[in-house]
Amino acid sequence: QVKLVESGGGLVQPGGSLRLSCAASVDIFSLVNIMGWYRQTPGKERELVATITRGGSSNYADSVKGRFTISRDNAKSTIYLQMNSLKPEDTALYYCNLFHPTRRRDYWGQGTQVTVSS
C-alpha cells in the first residue's frame, strides 16, 4: 500500500518560511524515480512546484525558483520543501506526489495547507 503523508503547513506572514515534509511508504520510496510537490488554489489547476529525482536532481517552477528548495532523505523515506521568502501568492494546498513505477499511476498525499497572510 502506497501512503504519502504531508505535514508542515500552516499560517505564516509574508517573508516568512515553512518546511513541508512528505513521508512515503518505505517500500516504494526507494523505487520511484521522481517525487514532487504540487499546489492548488480554488479555481486554478494544480500546478507543479518542484520535483526531485532519486539521484537528487531538482526542478522548480519559475514562480518559486530561488525561494524554495526540494530535498530528500532516503533514510527517512521523506522529501521536503523548504519555502523561504513566502508570498501571499504561495497560498495553496500543497500535495506530495509520486509516480508508481510498476502500477504506472500517480499517488497523492492528503495535502497540507499553506497560508501566507499578514
**Averaged pLDDT, please?**
95
Please state the structural category: mainly beta
Amount of helix: under 10%
Low-confidence stretches: none
Number of strands: 11
In angstroms, what separates the terminal alpha carbons?
A: 40 Å
Report the principal-axis shape: globular
**In this structure, how is the largest beta sheet organized?**
7 strands, mixed
Q: What is the CA-based Rg, rounded?
A: 14 Å
How many distinct helices? 1
What is the N-to-C succession of helices and strands? EEEHEEEEEEEE
How much of the sequence is in beta strands?
over 45%
Structure, described:
The chain is mainly β and about 120 residues long. It contains one helix and eleven strands. The model has no long low-confidence stretch (mean pLDDT about 95).
Summarize the topology.
Blueprint: E1 4-7, E2 10-12, E3 18-24, H1 26-29, E4 34-40, E5 47-53, E6 58-60, E7 68-73, E8 78-83, E9 92-100, E10 105-108, E11 112-116
Parallel strand pairs: 2-11
Antiparallel strand pairs: 1-3, 3-8, 4-5, 4-9, 5-6, 7-8, 9-10, 9-11
